[in-house]
Structures are given as structure tokens and as C-alpha cells.
Amino acid sequence: MLVEVKNEIKIMLLSVKYNIMRQMVNKTTFLTSILVMLLNNASFILQWIVLFSIKDDVGGYTLRQIVLLWGLASGVFGISHVFFNKAFEMPELIIEGKLDTFLIQPKNVLLSAITSNIRISAIGDIIYAYICLVVYGISIQSFILFTIFIITGGIILASLSTIMGSLSFWIVKGDILADAYINMCINVSTYPGSIFKGITKIILYTVVPMGLSIYLPLDIILKFDILKFICIICFTVLVVSLAFLIFYKGLKRYSSSNLMSSRI
User: Fold this and answer.
1) Total domains in the fold of the chain
2) Which of 3, 32, 91, 164 is 20 to 30 A away from residue 180, measured at CA?
3) Has residue 123 been placed in a domain?
């Protein structure tokens, strides 16, 4: 079992490596995409700086904590779109019958599909994430925890996208539902978690679990708590397992498009 997991991870990393190498053929476009994303993210922080010039804190968050929050959110988005970009296009793969290519390969169908493409600009998100960490104040512990949490967060976001996208096996126009759900996850992740109260906060830790991919990790970096750390790891394993379960259950209903295409 562990050997199979290790082999799948190696294949996944190789796929990402070759995707990046293909994109780097046009270095100008490659670097421009990353730079534009860095500038785009920086523009939002400028808005927070203006806000904090008026108020001392927002929901109990200081400017440094907001910068760290944005770093986590950017890192999570970056990891999910560099390593698992096609998870966000799952409805298209299902509806248009584009899974054929991956069904004939001697590899895990889901992992092969979601790692078959990358979003180059998302590399800028990852770079920006670590810039935010440096601005906040980097240490060995914060660096390690930050890295772990953008990975778990990226896996959680990609898994949620896979789950919602896999509904297209059963639901017509499931892509609309999946897009709306993921956009909601991304949008709420850039606001201080403390501003959400009552039922909204419960939703953010259950239905839209950005609390477990962004807010709780932020709390742990600020003040380490082993129980919260274990909670995040357990939830990551749970949501990944659920993504595989729903995808493969839905795959039994998949209809081929008879596309004559292959992927090397």
C-alpha cells in the first residue's frame, strides 16, 4: 500500500515537472504570468494598508496577521493550481468525455487527470505566499508550519473541487454548482475568520471548510496547538478519501466521447 502511494506521488511530481518544463519553452510568457500574479496579489494588500491607516485592527487581526492570512490563502491557491489544476476543470473532463485519455493509461485515473496540466500564474501565488511570510516574520517553526499548511490547504481545496466537479457524473450543469462553490471558498478565505459569527462560522468549518484550510492553520502558526494540528491532518485525509470515493463511484456512470487523443 505504502509503495503504491509512494509511486503515485513520484508520478504526480514528474507530471508537474514536465508540465512546467513545457511552459518554460516560452520564457517571456512564463515569467510575465508569474510577475502579473505577484503584482495582482500585492494590490490587494495595499487596500488593507489603507484600511489599517484608519483602524488599528479588523476583527482582532493586525496588519501583520492579515499579511500572513493572505500568504496562506495565496499559497493554498497556488499549490492547488500548480499540482492539481485539472481538479478545477473536472466538470469539463466529465461532460465533454475527456477522461478517455486517462482511462487507458496504467496509472491512477484521478491523479493522472488532475495533475495533467498546471496554471503557470499560480507559481506567482506560491512565491507571493512566502514573501508574505517573510514580511510577517519568518522563523524555522513558522516556515515549516506554513509550508505544511499551504500543502494541506491546497490538497483540501483540490479535493473539494474534485468532489463538487464529480457531481457532473449525476447532475446536468454540475459545472455551474462546482464553480460557484469553489469561488465562494476562495473569496471567504481572504477575510479575517473572526468577523464570521454564529451559523456562518459553523458553515466555514463544515460545508465550506476554509476554517480548516486557512483560519485554523493561521491560529496554529500564531500559537502552536498539537490537537488543532492533528485535526487538520485528519480532515485532509478524510476529504481526500471522500474525493476518491465519489470520483470512482461516479466514474462507473461515465460515457466515453470516443475522442482519438493521447497524452505523453
Assistant:
1) 1
2) 32
3) yes
Report pTM: 0.90
Grid coordinates representing 250 are: 461516479
Q: What is the DSSP string of 56-103?
A: S-BTTB-HHHHHHHHHHHHHHHHHHHHHSGGGGGHHHHHHTTTTHHHH
107, part of any domain: yes
Q: Examine residue 4 and state whether it is found in any structural domain, yes or no.
A: no
Contact 118, 34 (CB under 8 A): no
Answer whether residue 57 is part of any domain.
Answer: yes
- For 110, the domain range is 16-251
